[in-house]
Amino acid sequence: MNARDDQPLPVDAAPAGFDILKLEIEILCALCRAASTGRPTDLSLLDTAQGILSRYRFRNIEHQSLFDALCELRPALGSDSLSRAANHLKEHLLQRLTLRGFPEIDLNAYLAPQSVTTSEIIERLKTLAQILPA
Fold first, then answer.
1. How many Cβ atoms from other residues are within 10 Å of residue 128's Cβ?
2. How confident is the model at residue 9 (pLDDT cuts 50, 70, 90)?
3. Most confident of 22-31, 68-77, 79-88, 122-131
4. Residue 99: exposed, middle, or buried by beta-carbon count in 10 A (0-12, 13-18, 19+)?
5. pLDDT tens, residue by residue, 73-83
6. How big is the CA angle at 55 (ends 50 and 67), to the nearest 5 degrees?
């Protein structure tokens, strides 16, 4: 939100060099990795993302589909089947993405390790949420 008037920033008002698609990918990578651990502290990042991005529409339909699939799987990741769901996250995501028409998404790219902290991801989530929906 713009500090002066609490209004979302239009996409064309984003700072020079601001890459929305790259930001979406970084966030999705962090969310996939968090979901894959199954640890409550990591799953809380997914909960935070759902809250912050509740009205955001990803610019890339593949990104939106992956985010939606992660959100759909979140309840199973928090249940008694936590370890089974986390261990088979990739399989579950591929099933959901195939049903959405995206059978060829390379989830390995989203599950690859990155050196971004949770607090950095939360800041990036907030930045993304400031952009007007597409």
1. 19
2. very low
3. 22-31
4. exposed
5. 888 776 655 45
6. 45
- The least confident of 52-66, 75-89, 107-121 is 75-89
What is the mean pLDDT of the segment spanning 98-109? Answer: 90
Residue 79: both structure tokens together: 């249940």
Cβ count within 10 A of residue 17: 5
In our burial notation (b when 16+ CB lie closer than 10 A, e otherwise), range 60-74 reads: eebbbbbbebbbebb
Residue environment code for 20-51, b if the CB has 16+ CB neighbours within 10 A, otherwise e: beebbbbbbbbbbbbbbebeeebbebbebbee
Structure-token match 């970084």, residue found: 26
Taking the CA atoms of residue 99, residue 21, residue 11 and residue 97 in that order, the dihedral angle to the nearest 10 degrees is 10
Where helices occur in the chain by DSSP H, the ranges are: 20-37, 40-52, 61-77, 82-87, 89-99, 107-111, 118-129
- Rg (alpha carbons) of the chain, rounded to whole number: 15
